[in-house]
Write a structure and sequence with these properties.
Layout lengths: L3 E6 L4 H11 L6 E7 L6 H7 L4 E3 L8 H14 L4 E4 L8 H6 L4 E5 L11 H8 L3 E8 L9 E8 L6 H26 L4
Parallel strand pairs: 1-2, 1-4, 2-3, 4-5
Antiparallel strand pairs: 5-6, 6-7
The protein binds 5-O-phosphono-beta-D-ribofuranosylamine (GRF).
């Protein structure tokens, strides 16, 4: 069974676009109910609009506190009947309350092999540490940053010649593949459990 996806972005939105394409081509059964950006300057906003997808900007800077911002977010997601939230380069950490409200309904993609390299600057840290393999992870979002149950991962080899840019590029390609595989596997389980 497909989901009604709400994709949350803050930047380029290449994962978002990839999910939109997969939905349009019926590679996944899920539909994109909305794309929400917390950043009014996110490049992904224009791209999603061009594809005819509902796009909503909920700018956190216009709210005096996190509760009000997240209430707007929740209300809009409910209005659009979203039943799975996909974080795709969404750079705001969601509160415990929000995560509780949407328990097991938020997934995130992270550019490392979790539990290694949680947080930011993952590729830089991976290269400095001299890891031989890195990759990406899709996980459920819980109240701790990048710590929810891992759903699936993709691995890339880190070469001596790699720098932050080349590693990021290689991993992003894997991210696109991984997010779709995860959505397909969740769709198979959806409604059966
Ligand atoms: C990706 O590397 C993702 O793993 C991380 O932020 C980046 C977003 O890229 N959370 P894009 O906006 O999907 O191109």
């Amino acid at each position: 069974m497909g989901y009604n996806l709400g994709i949350l972005i803050s930047g380029n939105g290449s994962n978002m676009l990839n999910i939109i394409e997969a939905s349009k081509k019926k590679i996944i059964k899920s539909k994109i109910a909305t794309v929400i950006s917390n950043n009014p300057r996110a490049l992904g906003i224009k791209e999603a609009s061009k594809k005819g997808i509902d796009v909503k900007i909920i700018n956190q800077n216009k709210y005096s506190n996190i509760d009000d911002f997240e209430n707007s977010l929740s209300q809009y997601l409910l209005k659009k009947r979203v039943n799975l939230i996909c974080l795709a380069g969404f750079m705001k950490v969601l509160s415990k309350d929000f995560v509780k409200k949407w328990k097991n309904k938020i997934i995130n993609i992270h550019p490392s092999l979790l539990p290694s390299f949680k947080g930011l600057n993952t590729h830089d840290r991976a290269i400095r540490q001299g890891v031989k393999f890195s990759g990406c992870t899709v996980h459920f979002v819980n109240e701790k940053l990048d710590s929810g149950k891992i759903i699936d991962q993709e691995i890339v080899k880190v070469l001596k010649s790699d720098n932050v840019y080349s590693l990021q590029k290689k991993i992003l390609m894997k991210e696109h593949k991984l997010y779709i595989r995860v959505l397909k596997s969740l769709e198979m389980k959806n409604g059966k459990i």
